[in-house]
Design goal:
Blueprint: H1 18-33, E1 35-36, H2 41-48, E2 59-67, E3 74-85, E4 88-96, E5 111-114, E6 122-123, E7 130-134, H3 137-147, E8 151-153, E9 171-175, H4 180-193, E10 199-203, H5 211-223
Parallel strand pairs: 7-8, 7-9, 9-10
Antiparallel strand pairs: 1-2, 2-3, 3-4, 4-5, 6-8
Length: 224
């Protein structure tokens, strides 16, 4: 029997789980059932975060969003963000809201994805030769307001090495959070982010944990 070399084999392709396809269908249904963000509690939430309108079209609002299943199923008003790749919406991220106190978290982890994110991102602006990447929507919008960089939210710093980067992008700016975990994830993702000769720049807030905190302090200082 001939010893088979590693490169003789084709990459292993796993069949797509039916559950993942079902979750994508649910995500698309939720996205289509949601309403424009303008004038909604989701807009109030972003404004309270120091982020004024207009807001990207990839953000919507749903007044009655299902979270959980079976006996644990609950309903929350939520900001709905489209998670997209080049083919369109593949998932959504739900940011559950407390209408009585818009900045209060109604649960310990109010940001919940629905669908398989894969190499997609929350594309808050079209990518140019320069593209910013941030962990969350609030940080990404803060970076765009501060620096003018078209920025995508990833839905988690661990996805830095997964997101698909358009060929036209020549410079990646990571608007990172402070901390060892974020630094470790960036180090792991560096080969992916610098592929095809792309330049990689890391920007960290000087005195704050994340970019939205820094942006809100800056706006407060300007208003004083």
């Amino acid at each position: 029997m001939r010893r088979r070399k590693l490169h003789d084999a084709e990459p292993l392709t796993m069949p797509r789980p039916k559950a993942a396809a079902d979750h994508r269908a649910l995500a698309l249904r939720l996205w289509k059932a949601s309403q424009p963000i303008a004038g909604s509690p989701a807009a109030d939430y972003l404004a309270a975060r120091g982020l004024p309108p207009p807001y990207p079209r990839c953000l919507r609002y749903n007044p009655r969003t299902i979270v959980g299943a079976g006996e644990r199923r609950r309903f929350f008003p939520a900001m709905i963000a489209a998670v997209e790749n080049d083919l369109g919406v593949v998932a959504v991220q739900r940011t559950c809201l407390d209408l009585a106190d818009i900045l209060h978290k109604p649960m310990p982890k109010p940001k919940i994805a629905l669908g398989l994110l894969g190499d997609a991102a929350i594309r808050l602006a079209p990518a140019g030769e320069e593209l910013g990447l941030a962990e969350g929507i609030e940080d990404a919008l803060s970076a765009m307001a501060w620096f003018g960089t078209p920025t995508w939210a990833l839905g988690g710093v661990e996805r830095l090495g997964l997101v698909a980067i358009p060929e036209r992008v020549k410079r990646i700016i990571v608007y990172g959070d402070r901390g060892a975990a974020a630094a470790a994830m960036l180090k792991k993702a560096r080969p992916h982010l610098t592929a095809n000769g792309r330049e990689l720049v890391l920007r960290l807030p000087e005195r704050h944990a994340d970019w939205n905190d820094a942006w809100r302090v800056r706006r407060a200082a300007e208003a004083a």
